[in-house]
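>> received
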Amino acid sequence: MPYVAHPLERAKVYLAAGDYRRAVEACQMNIDQSPSVESYVYLIYVYHALDGYLESLAEHDEWVKVGQLSLSMVNRGTMDLVDPPDMLARMAKEILHEGIRQQYDVVAGMANRLDKSRADELWLEVRAWEKAHPDNWWAGVPESWHWFGSAGR
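>> returned
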């Protein structure tokens, strides 16, 4: 039987590639397969990573990449993050940011209802990861999360 990667393993590769739409979808699939506080926090983290990457692009005046990111997000299942796809890059940044924040808040509420103390523990791991990787934390996940395999696999 051929190897089928776990959704989190795929999400880790998608983050490394900057394919945030697929990373979101893989984490949503993980919630469908194994709902838990961890799976909800993992999805929140992907939204957080997307927002971090977006902010980094804006800080470095990489507006063409912001526009490309916007288009990649509306390519399929995440239409609720950006609409319409042909907007100016600076507008795209603001619309993406607002959509991310809304989704983040919704999913964070779900995680907190399941187990707020565990969600808080996971966010401490995120903060340590961000501190250890200040220039590219959004391209990976905290090592303690064991998202199976590696991006180079």
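>> The mean pLDDT is 88.
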